[in-house]
Specification:
The complex is a heterodimer of chains A (109) and B (111). Chain A is mainly β. Chain A has no helices and eleven strands. In chain B, strand 5 and strand 6 (54-57) form a beta hairpin. By secondary structure, chain B is mostly beta strands. Chain B has no helices and eleven strands. Classes of the chains: A mainly beta (109), B mainly beta (111). The interface between A and B is medium-sized, with 24 and 25 residues.
């Protein structure tokens, strides 16, 4: 079983729609990161959240860290085809970083 | 701005062969790690290092060895390749133990 469960696994939407993807765990994390990965490339860090209840905005992306620091969500407003990719969450456990399996997002023009 | 450089980008091995995947970073990061990425499994940690001369096992270390003789380099060795090791391998480095910077990956096929 994954330490970090991401949902949905796949998401296909039309350009302009809003969406939310989730990252859930039974463990408490000191910080949680969100990455985006494009085909043939390594993951690229989008944001790190540290404080329970924290909300961070990155243009049309809004990241929230749960109050108990066990879960997080990523909301995208007015999705664009350039948002297409694999979105991964990651949290630190015992001095190493664990990743979820990711949400594969496709935004159709 | 090289960042994290992995070589080779693609490799095909026969079962039982050995090889070394190279990883180098020029950001003077102490923390480096190796992951494998398989469909539906996400990234799984193989080995990591918190500094030169120090390595430790991650989630899936069996069949792999690492060494860290310098801050810059963190090679991953496959001792006797098996089809189950077919995967995409990513090396990452971090200024601390989070916020990883990844290389572009090595796609390995073992036949």
């Amino acid at each position: 079983t994954q330490l970090l469960e991401q949902s949905p696994q796949f998401l296909s939407i039309q350009e302009g729609e809003n969406l939310t993807v989730y990252c859930n765990s039974s463990s408490v994390f000191s910080s949680l990161q969100w990455y985006r990965q494009e085909p043939g490339e390594g993951p690229v860090l989008l944001v790190t959240v540290v404080t329970g209840g924290e909300v961070k905005k990155l243009k049309r992306l809004t990241f929230q860290f749960g109050d108990a620091r066990k879960d997080s969500s990523l909301h995208i407003t007015a999705a664009q085809p350039g948002d297409t990719g694999l979105y991964l969450c990651a949290g630190e456990e015992n001095n190493d970083m664990r990743f979820g399996a990711g949400t594969r997002l496709t935004v159709k023009p | 701005n090289a960042g994290v450089t992995q070589t080779p980008k693609f490799q095909v091995l026969k079962t039982g062969q050995s090889m070394t995947l190279q990883c180098a970073q020029d950001m003077n990061h102490e923390y480096m790690s190796w992951y494998r990425q398989d469909p539906g499994m996400g990234l799984r940690l193989i080995h990591y290092s918190v500094g030169a001369g120090i390595t430790d096992q991650g989630e899936v270390p069996n069949g792999y060895n690492v060494s860290r003789s310098t801050t810059e380099d963190f090679p991953l060795r496959l001792l006797s390749a098996a089809p189950s090791q077919t995967s995409v391998y990513f090396c990452a480095s971090s200024p601390s133990d989070d916020e990883a910077f990844f290389g572009q990956g090595t796609r390995l096929t073992v036949v």
